[in-house]
Amino acid sequence: MTNKKKKWSALFSAPLDARVAKFNASVRFDYRLAEHDIVSSLAHATMLQNQGIISDSDGDAIKTGLNTILEEIKDNRFDWREEDEDVHFNIERRLVELSGDAGKRLHTARSRNDQVATDLRLFVRARIDMLQKSLSDARCALLTQAEQHVNTLMPGMTHLQVAQPISFAHHMLAYEDMLNRDSARFADCRRRVNILPLGAGALAGTGHPIDRQQVATALAFDGLCENSMDAVSDRDFAIEFTSAAAILMMHLSRFCEEVILWSSPAFGCITLADAFCTGSSIMPQKKNPDVPELIRGKCGRVTGSLTALLMLMKSQPLAYNKDNQEDKEPVFDCADTVQECTDIFAAMVSAINVKVARMRTLLEAGYPTATELADYLVKQGLPFRQAHDVVATIIKTLSTTGTRLEEMTLKELQQHVPQADAGALEVLSAEYAVQARNHVGGTAPEEIERQIKRRREILTVESTSN
Ligand code: ARG
């Protein structure tokens, strides 16, 4: 990138201080908007031409020039210059080189303020659409794991202590529900992203006879930003995008945390395929879960982008302020990070191998059917608080010898609850507890099958409507 000194305009008597020029420039990062900038300029030029604001020959020269520039950029032949400040001025400079006075007419009836707002909306829209595809892959991977483990029992935890038996499928579906909400949040966000600011000019609109709807239709926007002041200064759409991304990353980090725990020798109830693990430079025995750890770590980075944008907009007076040039890097970094994490997450979910027997051992170590026994005693007439206490006493006794609840004899039970019958022992198996929860939202295999089927259908409908 070159940096030659030149004056801003006839109004100025000296060029920018070299340090200021560097400080003010954004092309080193906003070059990433180039394609969107050209597409929106093409739509703007066509509208100017259709409205008779520029001549047909100027319109045609502009469009030819912009298409040439697009090719140059795609082929990495474009001469980006820091002295031209940003992506918009760089492209305009080249357009004037290619088409002379026609190129100087492209900026009629627009400002960089409505231009950059349009470009950024196009960027965010494209990234939402790309991310939605990866999110459905991730949801699909969770459903596939669920399908394979409808009957794999594991300890459902509260406080990271064994609580009640659930199926591994049930656990997977909890995450699918989270990602389902994430998809819905991005779809909702997209509706507010997809409205056109162009036409707002610098802040107050334009006196030229423009047709904003024509531009909106050409760029597939669903509507127009109405208030021109809000149109140029609003960055809610970027904040909503990073917010939805931060929530998604929080969900991914929760799953990753579980993968890290489960694959540790202490739990040892899953393995991650070798392609998703790394070794240690010193300890030959190690297989480290770097992938879920990195996703977990990147969650903070995406939340950082959200915070940066919220702080960027805080207290900004209307309308456009140069502060807004600072919106690009958080948006770009957030979009890249969440995209990469979601892609790798989908692949990582498929790389999980469940150690079914070990899951069962972990489950059985924690008296997971204690609640079943208490409930049974309640059905036999004991008040729940009393039943709770009796079962606690039983567990205290059993734990001294390391005996599991299912191993208890009727005689032993009757020492605590004289009226208990043999039926009490039947409720002590994990299978019984799981089967009994055959209601909407429960962990019974039949209900889980229903949930999987329904979620597969939702995914199919979503992918055909995208
Ligand atoms: N590079 C600027 C940005 O990213 C473009 C808009 C500049 N507008 C202005 N009035 N200086 O926000």
Automatic annotation (TrEMBL):
<keyword id="KW-0963">Cytoplasm</keyword>
<dbReference type="Pfam" id="PF00206">
    <property type="entry name" value="Lyase_1"/>
</dbReference>
<dbReference type="InterPro" id="IPR024083">
    <property type="entry name" value="Fumarase/histidase_N"/>
</dbReference>
<keyword id="KW-0456">Lyase</keyword>
<keyword id="KW-0055">Arginine biosynthesis</keyword>
<protein>
    <recommendedName>
        <fullName>Argininosuccinate lyase</fullName>
        <ecNumber>4.3.2.1</ecNumber>
    </recommendedName>
</protein>
<comment type="pathway">
    <text>Amino-acid biosynthesis; L-arginine biosynthesis; L-arginine from L-ornithine and carbamoyl phosphate: step 3/3.</text>
</comment>
<dbReference type="InterPro" id="IPR000362">
    <property type="entry name" value="Fumarate_lyase_fam"/>
</dbReference>
<dbReference type="Pfam" id="PF14698">
    <property type="entry name" value="ASL_C2"/>
</dbReference>
<dbReference type="InterPro" id="IPR008948">
    <property type="entry name" value="L-Aspartase-like"/>
</dbReference>
<keyword id="KW-0028">Amino-acid biosynthesis</keyword>
<dbReference type="InterPro" id="IPR029419">
    <property type="entry name" value="Arg_succ_lyase_C"/>
</dbReference>
<comment type="similarity">
    <text>Belongs to the lyase 1 family. Argininosuccinate lyase subfamily.</text>
</comment>
<dbReference type="InterPro" id="IPR022761">
    <property type="entry name" value="Fumarate_lyase_N"/>
</dbReference>
<comment type="similarity">
    <text>In the N-terminal section; belongs to the lyase 1 family. Argininosuccinate lyase subfamily.</text>
</comment>
<feature type="domain" description="Fumarate lyase N-terminal">
    <location>
        <begin position="12"/>
        <end position="304"/>
    </location>
</feature>
<dbReference type="InterPro" id="IPR020557">
    <property type="entry name" value="Fumarate_lyase_CS"/>
</dbReference>
<dbReference type="GO" id="GO:0004056">
    <property type="term" value="F:argininosuccinate lyase activity"/>
</dbReference>
<feature type="domain" description="Argininosuccinate lyase C-terminal">
    <location>
        <begin position="369"/>
        <end position="435"/>
    </location>
</feature>
<dbReference type="InterPro" id="IPR009049">
    <property type="entry name" value="Argininosuccinate_lyase"/>
</dbReference>
